[in-house]
Task: inverse folding
């Protein structure tokens, strides 16, 4: 008893040219839709990293100021108890014989690829893009790029 009969004939094995063209066209459409999605995902991840880095530095600045306000260490009179620079947060300060660090390292700005951040002192204008050099009250990205939500990165 034979269940399957071998087919004979030329046109029944493999794909036709039309089937191959349709398959390639469908794959091209799917690939062209995936490329913008990938770019969007990469940009969103960089924005997430930028937000985290800014939060981390601002949190370190706040902890430094809180410790200075509690007189754990001495600061300059005109500093308003804010750190003089970002490197001080990394190097730390002596508190009762112990070295207290507020930041592990200065993060790399994911938008510029550098560890060069914009800074504002307590004495600077809130929207200033130049640092007075007295202390660090705030940090921002020096990137001129625009975020997915339409805002500029340097305003975050």
Result:
């Amino acid at each position: 008893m034979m269940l399957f009969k071998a087919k004979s004939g030329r046109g029944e094995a493999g794909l036709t040219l039309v089937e191959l063209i349709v398959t390639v066209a469908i794959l091209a459409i799917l690939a062209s839709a995936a490329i913008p999605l990938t770019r969007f995902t990469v940009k969103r991840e960089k924005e997430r990293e930028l937000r985290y880095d800014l939060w981390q530095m601002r949190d370190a600045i706040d902890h430094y100021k809180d410790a200075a306000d509690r007189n754990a260490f001495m600061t300059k009179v005109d500093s308003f108890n804010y750190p003089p620079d970002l490197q001080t947060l990394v190097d730390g300060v002596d508190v009762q014989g112990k070295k207290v660090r507020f930041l592990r390292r200065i993060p790399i700005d994911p938008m510029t690829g550098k560890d060069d951040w914009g800074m504002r002192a307590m004495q600077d204008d809130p929207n200033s893009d130049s640092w007075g050099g007295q202390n660090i009250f705030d940090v921002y990205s020096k990137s001129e790029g625009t975020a997915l939500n339409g805002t500029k990165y340097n305003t975050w």
